[in-house]
Design a protein that fits this description.
By secondary structure, the chain is α/β, with parallel strands linked by helices. Helices cover 54% and strands 14% of the residues. It starts with a helix and ends with a helix. It binds beta-D-glucopyranose (BGC).
Length: 415
Amino acid sequence: MNAKLTMVAASLALALSSAVQAGEVEVLHWWTAGGEAKAAQGLKASLQAKGHTWKDFAVAGGGGDSAMTVLKSRVVSGNAPAAAQIKGPSIQEWAREGLLQPMDAVAKAEGWDAKLPKVVSDVMKFNGQYVAAPVNVHRVNWLWANAAVLKKAGVKAPTTWDEFFVAAEALKKAGVIPLAHGGQNWQDFTVFESVALGVGGPEFYKKALVQLDAATLNSATMDKVLETFRKVKATTDKNSPGRDWNLATAMVIKGEAGMQLMGDWAKGEFLAAGKAPGKDFVCAAAPGTAKSFTFNVDSFALFKLKNSANQAAQRDFASAVMSPEFQELFNLNKGSIPVRTDLKMDKFDDCAKQSNADFLATAKGGSLVPSIAHGMAVPSAVEGGIKDVVSQFWNNDSMTVAQAKQRIAAAAKGS
Ligand code: BGC
């Protein structure tokens, strides 16, 4: 073969091999709000840069309840996507069904174990093998506030629940809604768990809501938590039922409301609206929780696929998710911090830097706790049961604290 022919053959072989390898990755997620969609776009672009096709399987609905319902029906009909946003103990539930694809070849080659906190890698593995790839660490126990509105009301971001109610009163007097809230059960619980952490402290939180210890769930501290939670409701507006979380964030952005208790995906909304942290808006730990960190790790579980080109694309997807470039770009838009512990934080704002420092400090000190509202702590059936009671209590002023307490304890037992 002459030299020219050899070159043509070589480039043909290359084209062919990439054609064979180019596959489709269908990705189920619920990142449809402004900041979320911007963050997801980066993942799509990095997959496309590798020659693969991205098939978007977005199911709107904050917190992912609708996405999980749709996923179940797709899997039952034998048509699982390549990757689905599944988190916490649910990863094990899916893996136990034999549906997830071990990714150890990629994880070992890239040294994932050394790059991830153990509290995260343990959750990503089933029988010692990675079946999911983590994206980020969201902190849930945040309070977001409109800086100009706080100033107008003459208050600072509250650091205790007592201060919160004083600030709420001042905001009301200044003519704004104190707390923007969306009445959906995952949002109710997002507020509830911050109240539980702030009022009861991390030990109480872990015993009651993670270990589901009956005595702690029935304790007097639980009464205080529920009473405080009910008082928080009085700081929200009557149009909150059913409102999406990002619309609640928009109320704070526009100055119609003063504060929101929400995870740091809310920051993605402020940033997407062109607002600057520390100037236009304030991020502060939820009242009473500055020394704790409620974590929520987004991750993609990888489903078993039949087509070999799609399997290759799925491996590239897992690798892209863990790549330093993706982790940085995605998290800059999403409001979270990279889950890899070996990345520099220089490009991140002060809220993210604070989150990163607190994540590391609380991991050492024992006050790093999983978010129940976001599927990090307990089996999904128990989580659903407890969330329902908490929302019923929030919505129904005639339910007493004693009744709520007794029903939460029953739901924790799975009854
Ligand atoms: C997810 C976030 C998402 C938020 C609102 C949380 O459960 O972890 O990634 O932005 O829900 O949809």
